[in-house]
Amino acid sequence: MAVELDVFVGNTIIMSEEVYQLWLDGYTVNDAVKVRMEGGVLDEFDAKVDVVLSDTMDQYRTFQMCERLLHSPTKLANQLLFQIPPHRQATLIERYYAFDDVFVREVLGKKLSKGTKKDLDDISAKTGVMLKSCRRQFDNFKRVFKVVEELKGPLVENIRQHFLLSDKLARDYAAIVFFANNRFETGKRKLQYLTFQDLAFCAGQLINNWTVGAVDNMVEDMDVDLDKDFLQELKELKVLITDKDLLDQHKSLVCTALRGKTKAFNEMEANFKNLSRGLVNIATKLTNTKDVRDFFIDLVEKFIEPCRSDHWTAADMKLYLTHYTNSAHILDTFKSVTVIFMYLFCTFISPARVTLFIFSSLAFLKFSKAAWLQES
Amino acid sequence: MPGKLKAKIVAGRHLPVMDRASDLTDAFVEVKFGNTTFKTDVYPKSLNPQWNSEWFKFEVDDEDLQDEPLQITVLDHDTYSANDAIGKVYIDIDPLLYSEAASVISGWFPIYDTIHGIRGEINVLVKVELFNDLNRFRQSSCGVKFFCTTSIPKGYRAAIVHGFVEELVVNEDPEYQWIDRIRTPRASNEARQRLIFLMSGELQRKIGLKVLEMGGNAVVGYLQCFDLEGESGLVVRAIGTACTLEKLSSGSGTHTHPNTAPASNACNSPSKDGKEPVFGEDLPSSSGPSTPFRALPTSSSSPPPFSPSKPCSRQSSSSDTDLSLTPKTGMGSGSMGKDAGPLKTLLRQQTQTALEQREFPFFTLTSFPSGFLLHVGGVVSARSVKLLDRIHNPGESSSRTHNPNVASTRRRIGVYSLCHVRGLSSSVLEEVCILSASGTAAILNPRYMREGCLDLGGSDQRFEDPSPSSCGFCHIPYDELNMPFPAQLTYCFHCRRQKVPDVLFTTIDLPSDAAIAGKGCFIQARLCRLKKKGQGEANATAISNQLPFMEYELHTQLMNKLKLRSMNALFGLRIQISVGENMLLGLASATGVYLTALPAPGGIQIAGKTPGDLNTEQHILNIQKRINDTIAKNKEFYEVNPPDLTEEVVGSPIPEPRLRSRLFRSHSESSDELSELDLSHGKKDAFVLEVDDTDAVEDIHSLLTDASPPKGFYSCNTETMPGIYNWTSALQMFTSVRVLRLSNANLSNQALNKVFTDLCENLLKSFYFKLRSMIPCCLSHLVFSVAVPEEDLIQVAVTAVAMTFDKDQTQEKPAEKPITKGCSEAEDQLQFSLELCTDSSSINSQSSSKNSVSSLEHSSPLTEGRSRSLRSSRSFGGSSVSVVKMTPLSFLPGTRIVKYVGIINMFFIRETTSLREEGGVSGFLHSFVAEVFAMVRAHVAALGGNAVVSYSMKDCVLMENPNKNQCQCLINVSGDAVIYIRETDQEVTGSTANIGLSCTSSADGAT
After folding, report:
1. Shortest Cα distance from A36 to chain B (angstroms)?
2. Could you tell me which chain A residue has the CA closest to the CA of B735?
């Protein structure tokens, strides 16, 4: 007695968010039925396995048919095939484009190419995210990347408009696109302690402050690429370490300001030259694409690890960098460019706490940048 | 003669990529009507072309306008090779042909390809300029409105109900023509689709002509069916009830209720606005004879204050009861098919005067205005088995043999008219074809019939006594001493004056004013019988020999299940028998109700065959106990608490197990007189089931295994659920299809029955599960249709609607029952009950005013209550696609239908040669059904409508060949496109007071 055919189609789409999630997570129909049965569908409603199976099948089919439309979410709103209430549309899209942080952390900064796609089963094994789900997420990244790559205007806004995502999700995608475009290396073991959200935050800062779009929304370029002129300007920082006088002067200014304010003062004073050299070297090399890719790893190696070995706290770092940039400003040799550059570093020690700090300084950041623009 | 059709192609969107190299498409459009074709320019390299074409003008006959669809083909331009077709859109322009419907068709249509499904959308504008054709001998019937709704549509009232119309058109099936061997599947499918569009257009036109001849202007309860009879051809049949409908003047009109307005209103106005043809001398019916009755509503009806613009649809008179049944004489006329026009007209005139039809009018309605129906006799049905023959025209012959059957059955029952003919459904298997017709015999109120004037005196004495409408229809219409079938008669429990039968089976909906106890309940009897494979005549004989037994069995099952739920009446009974290669399937669905006018049903008594055997006795006792428990449980679930159960004890077992002379299961109790004559009916209160062999045990088991729906769910197959009145507006229409393959070819009847029963039960369970988020909710209009597409395959297709209701208010106050019932049903039925009051007022004017006042008082809070709950419904703002609701019912809860914009009658074929890739048969059918919904919605939206009512899927023929990775499916759907508005939108005036009232009342209900 085999059921040869079994369909159930509603005029308005019939879906349960639970099943949708199972589908997105890559469960096969049978596994999904198992999960649902264990999840208590059976108890709450007197349902037998075959009933749950039939329901799951119907929904899976519906989702499969919807998937094509979900690839271009704007179509979902004016397609005629399914009648989907707007709030349902939003859920469908948002969930479809949602991703696992563990998974995205693995592909962040990698080229979204076929080669990477082949490695997905390894990633799946490593992260515990089902291969099917990995594929969907990867294809989502690729699709978003492809669409916004060529678009002008602010990146987040573009993503939000073309994929009808929530603000948060659009920002995350912007980060993914940004990382993929600049191919930042994030896979090294030393960077493993950074979560996707940490990196996404950095990406957000970079997008806001280091790209052409950040400088001027009307510019015909996009948010995806770093501002070449800005990177060129950073070369000027080199004097900070090449000019001996300047270096000493800078150090004394910073130390005077820091004295008595932190327990780690001795280490700061001792390591000042090293740290300053590390920072400036990273900054001045950024015109080179290869060095851009290693930006994060360099930062960790040259700046954060020394600080960490000296047991700096996040507050220490904040203090240090504030004064480091302020003093540099006082030296008047440089433009406030540095400020913009320096502030990002804090992120890497203790992300949760530092995030707050960065936000509080954001206004200042923007101000400095504007000031720099005026000056230049 | 003449009409000018104008079409404009605006734009396309989401087109498929046709050029792999550029990932784009160079699309252009061909617009074809009749034999004229226009083309747009090629819009190069775009998936969202903006053609913005000029207006393409077609100057055509109105006959063609009715028959032909506008055919729009989207193609991809190819410089070197042939242009590739992307897909087609067929637009039925019929809705543009009558005056009050849509004036323009404008919107996005899915571009449909029979192989690939929907491929993008196209925006089209269509208009028609129609000139009047006054030619008496014209072949067109523009202006006749068609409704699928099986009641008088909202916003109209029936001035005259003329009677039954039917017609059929036959053609060769393109799939079986020689050319099909050389053309592509796509071309063949398209030829077929187009042909069926043409045929149904022609059919509508011909029916329209008949209606015009009868002096009507509309067809209500229009039902169209297809028979794919293979090489014998393709038959399209349709039936309907011809009416003269009058549009109710909205708003102020009802307030002023002028004495003259309604009569002159509708029938004459169409001629003024030029779109509708003038009827010439066909007109007198609208103004003449029925005036006395027509005066009734106007003089006495006080318009309900809460819905000022509410239509008062009622049928005030039925003047012309002759049934224009055109049994085609001569075989030739049928095969001439399409162009036998004038000849047929002659034939028609000759046959029209058949006296029989005058006496026994047919109607295709399921719900009637109050007072229209006097008494209901019972179900009549007729089936005939036909051997299809290539030379004969199957449809023609069958329709000829068919209706006389029904008519003679009716005569036996001695009943005046058949009020509802439920389709001439048919089941075709190769060359054998079963045609079935069923209906409810009833006596209509002679006051409503013009021709009844003559015998008014006589019949009035008999029937006129103003028996309360809540029970009147239950009273037996036949002579007590001369009953057409055995039944146990008692005095009506309501009025105690007239006799009523112990049970009542009908195919109609529960009259809105009927007094019931508790809620209704979906009851289904399923039966599967093996049949030897056979050929030709022997096969047909075998089938027809089985039929009566199947009917009997189904009836027994229904009766048992009804008793098990302690109910005493069935409404909406629909019996379908389909024939397969090696089995016959019977499925009877109905909605059980406890009518308080009828006696309480007895319990079920189990009797063993061999007394003395202790084991058996014990076993029987067990079963008996389970049955009694089930009855008790059901009573509680359906809240069947008859208000005034006097000395009759429900379910009191007066055991008479020694009655051995019976056939093994009796199905009906008989009256005293008859028990002597008929040994098969014993005088007993309880219903006895004998356990004499394994069959019977199985049957009883199956009785008990019927699971009742889970808490919060109710189901019925009628328009509205008896006992639930406070609908909220959430709505989910669905179609479900299941096909079961019998793995074991050598099944016994019993095992087969079980399989089939489980299939249906599981389907129901599935629905409950899938729709559990809507609880409390009711599945209404559950229509099952079974088929045996191949040997060992059973296909069940279900279309139904789930509607939520407000749980807190389900308790009714018994005192107001008849009235509240009326108002809490669809709006118009509220009107019916009001009309009823006012009608009776003219007869016994004393009570009328009081009645109508009270009814208003009672009704307003309830309607308000419903509209309040409506606010909680979702709002669909912001979406660029307008929402189209679909329902198989004739109304949408919480809303009011303001306009009917046209009938939807569409036919689609879908085929695939990559079945596996599309997800198997299920995946294929799933997307096809979704596509059909989408296309229906798009057409409705283009007509300016926002809902489809009376939607039905009449055919779903699935043919698969998994080995070849192929599958083909045909679906035919129909419905009425309407514009509705939310009730709240119109109830600004004086609603505040009512809301206050309703709040208190609902609070009362809750406590």
Report:
1. 13
2. A9
